[in-house]
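Protocol step 4 of 6: record predicted structures for both targets in the notebook before any analysis. Target 1:
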Amino acid sequence: MGIWDYLKVAEILAEAAEKAKTPPVTPGPIVRTEPFPWRKRDELLGSHGIPPRISFIDNVFREKVHPVEGSIICCDLGIVADHSGVYIGDGKIVHRDGGGYIAVVSPETFIERLDGLNNAISLYVSCRGENAAGLEEVAQRAQRSVKDPAHRGYNLLLKNCHQFCQYCLSGKEPGFLSASYLSLEQMLRKVYKMDNWRVWDR
């Protein structure tokens, strides 16, 4: 493992130890502490698009969650990219696929991108604290888009999967400056007050 892996393991173990010795308290406002270096690295890269070995650590050490309607789902796509979609319930995700279609797919289809060559092993769920974050209206907007021809088509800078998710979150078509994962995460922080991603407990 590399230095980022060790730092992440150290953080997770420290969090678990602190939780074990801290008595329960009444839930209050979530306060983000200064992120560990591996989180800062992910933000700078514009991705939780972490190598499989770190995804493995997330699966083993961190608590998993079940998405709620409107949760944003992400996974690695190759080495430096990510894929995103909207959870609509009943184990289904709506996404903009590489062919430009807005489609309802299973988690298995969502993660098996690049003709099965994708190395992702986890699906990540937008969360606030330890709970999945989502809104029913976001899921409904995603479902309506499936039959709307205005949302068809694909362009790396103008109509990609992250921009589709941002449309579902806001109801407004984002511009080409919103094509990145970072733009999606910024909107998630604004709309859902999201502060972390957690592995989907499938």
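Target 2:
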Amino acid sequence: MSSAVPAPEGDIVKRPLQFFWLVDYSGSMGGRKIATLNQAIREAIPEVKKAVATHPEVQIVMRAIKFSDDALWHVGPDAVPLDQFVWPELTIAGGTSTAKAIRKLTDELSMEKMSKKGYPPVCILVSDGYCTDPSEEYNSAIQELEQQPWGKKAVRFSIAIGNESNYDASARAAQARPHRRRRQTLPAALQRSPTPATPY
């Protein structure tokens, strides 16, 4: 992150950092998976606060998109300051339309909605990977995201919940975007996920 820029009166000028959760609440996330997701995100929030405490120039605001048969706001559409963010309990329903969640994210990353002076957004997708979208629909959604300037700049990760070997969303994303692999420090709660974070 860049060094803080002092304002004329001596205060630190804050730049916004948009933080998006994209979370799977489909039927395949039942039982321990949805409980793990809820707990991991709740544990991640204090870790994010701790990390940003040493960077007073950064103002994190969070939102969350949940997806099953459709993509809906779980927290939003208005962004919530980090110190006011509370994770609502998520329960399961429906299929896994990851493409709809990515398209909803793409809309929010448009130049009209994002601050020109903000940091690159952080977007974390959490799923068990049983994506029910056709491959061409998912890849099309990723391409639309890549066409957005903020979509290209975003720090984007997918995290698998569960030990299944066919983590479809992560595998498709890696195939669609082999040229962009970022190494970033994730909150400790998310580092303990059974499957390592991968770009999407």
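Step 5 preliminary note on target 2. Strands lie at 5-6, 12-13, 15-24, 58-67, 71-81, 122-127, 155-160. The two ends are 22 Å apart (CA to CA).
Proceed to step 6 after PI sign-off.
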